[in-house]
Amino acid sequence: MNPLVSPPTGLLTARGLAFGYPGREIGRGIDLSVAGGEVLALLGPNGGGKTTLLKTLLGLLAPLAGTVAVEGRPLAALPARARAKAMAYVPQSAGSAFAFTARAVVLMGRSAHTGLFSAPSRADHAAAEAALARLGVPHLADRPITRISGGERQLVLIARALAQEPRLVILDEPTASLDFGNQGKVMREIARLRADGLGVVFTTHDPNQAARYADRALLLRAGRRLAEGPVAEVLEAGRLEELYGAPIEVVRNETTGARAFLPG
Prior knowledge:
It is built from ten helices and twelve strands. With 264 residues, it is α/β, with parallel strands linked by helices. The strands form three sheets. The protein has a six-stranded mixed sheet with strand order 6-7-8-3-9-10, with helices on both faces. Strands 2-1-4-5 form a four-stranded antiparallel sheet, covered by helices on one side. It has a two-stranded antiparallel ribbon with strand order 11-12.
């Protein structure tokens, strides 16, 4: 790094980022920054590169160009445990080949603090129970993860991330498999994480979630940044129509000024 250039600031930063796989670039030209107590929503159509970008920000994929830093430190230089203490990942809900109990899955989040092969301590168990209770699923603790619904499984995965006690939580379409009530529960949890001073990045297909719960939005189409900035500025009909290639209707509450985005 040029000593005359200030290092990136923020909990998570990316500069000039190109991402994808060896021999296959998915996207490039990404600059972003997420501070503690801030929520960034990443929106874009299917196949636009959102999940690949998240995996690059997490260090699961190496950048093809550019840099990713956590609290000003290059992500590539951080040991695996340091990354795990800094960032937790909630993937899209998927089936499991192993019948771990929900409690065991949440306890896996504690490995960032105890080591992968260490026996969980009393404090680890307490953290896991607290995370299950916070998500409203303590009754699932002894149920095999293979025998609960996709929505319940997603809540357990979020509880695992909370038990990890990270400073940043990255969620890939966290409400995709949830019913309407549980969607609200997850989005309210994102608001609580922000209030607790954590940084949050989440992907969504719903601009209404971004408008209500995020501070800033990044619009990604075909791996390129279409727009990025405060949600009040970025989320407008013209940009969303360009993003999704479909007409968008904006409905505004005349009393509160709140906006809702509907397919035209």
